Every structure is written in C-alpha cells, then in structure tokens.
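for the recovery benchmark. tokens below, seq after
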C-alpha cells in the first residue's frame, strides 16, 4: 500500500502470484506496461486485489492481465498515450471484476478483451479512446465469451466506440452509454463476425 513505482525501461508492478493486494499505489512503466498480472497456461494466477491505483504507461499497455483469473480491481485508473496498445488489455483471463475504474488512451484504444478473456465484469466504469486508426476503439471485444459491461460510459471522439468481432459470443453490454463524436458516418457500436451478443437498456449516440 501507499507505494509509487517508476520504471522507464520496463514494467511498473509485475505480479506473478496469487492472493496479493495493491492499494493506494501508482506505477509508471514503459516497456511492459505499468501493471502486469502474469500467469501461464499451466499455472494461472488468481485472487489478487487492486484498489485505488493509478497506472500509466507510455509505450505499452498500461495494464495487462495474462492467464490471470478471479482478480478484483476497483476505483483505479489506467491510462496510456501510445497508439499501438491499450489502456487495459486482458488475454486468456477470466472471471475478473473491474468496478468504478477509469480506462483511457489518448492516442489508441482503451479496453481490449481478447483471445479467451471470458466472463469478466466491468461495472460503473468509463472507457475513453482518442485514437482514429484501425482497432483504436474505446472497447474492443474479440475472440472472447460471456463478458459483461454494465452501467458504464464508453466514448470515442474519432472512431467506433465499441467493436465486437471475430468469434466473440454471449457478451453483454447493459445499462451503458456509448457515444461517438465524429460526424463522418462512424457508428457508435459494430458487431462483425460475432454471435449471440446482447445490447440491452443502453443508449447509442453518434454525431450523424
């Protein structure tokens, strides 16, 4: 608790075990990101708790969860300003919860759930992406199943705010506000090559 870590050439916080707690702490990382919960296919990690953290990175994802399950993250901020990466990215990680978090990227995408990132829940959170290039969305769900985004604000000034694609199934966006500011025919939300996803009790707005 109450820690600050800066690493200009590597990761900020690297967690490779379970049942750890990080609170009231900040990390700034460059290569490798500010926060990395890293397990392995044969040894996933779980049950870590992160609350009231601030994680910022310049040239990689501000936070990565790889083979990390059933972790709880709340009241935390994840930021990035690099157009090739995410503010927060989950890979092969399931049943994690994110509550009252702010996830943003000033040049690229905010939140990415990919390749087996399934049954995670994001609630009462904001996702903001300022990128305008391919895949620079506020929320990108691809190859993942059963994720729930609820009571959240998702905004992209220059790009599709929410992209659900490439085998994503049974994901739910619930009671959320999704908005795009660009006035050139860009949709607030797209579903491509994905099935059985649900959008309910949510508002979609675009400039057109």
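predicted aa per position
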């Amino acid at each position: 608790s109450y820690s600050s870590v800066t690493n200009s050439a590597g990761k900020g916080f690297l967690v490779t075990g379970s049942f750890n707690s990080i609170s009231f702490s900040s990390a700034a990382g460059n290569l490798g990101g500010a926060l990395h919960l890293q397990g392995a296919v044969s040894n996933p990690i779980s049950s870590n708790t992160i609350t009231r953290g601030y994680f910022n990175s310049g040239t990689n994802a501000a936070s990565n969860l790889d083979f990390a399950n059933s972790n709880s993250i709340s009241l935390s901020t994840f930021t990035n300003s690099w157009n090739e990466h995410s503010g927060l990215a989950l890979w092969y990680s399931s049943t994690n919860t994110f509550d009252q978090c702010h996830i943003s990227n000033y040049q690229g995408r905010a939140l990415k759930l990919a390749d087996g990132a399934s049954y995670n829940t994001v609630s009462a959170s904001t996702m903001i992406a300022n990128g305008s290039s391919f895949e620079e969305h506020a929320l990108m769900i691809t190859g993942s199943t059963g994720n729930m985004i609820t009571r959240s604000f998702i905004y992209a000034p220059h790009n599709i705010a929410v992209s659900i694609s490439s085998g994503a199934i049974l994901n739910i966006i619930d009671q959320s506000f999704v908005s795009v500011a660009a006035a050139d025919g860009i949709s607030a939300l797209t579903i491509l090559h994905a099935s059985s996803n649900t959008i309910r009790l949510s508002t979609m707005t675009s400039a057109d």
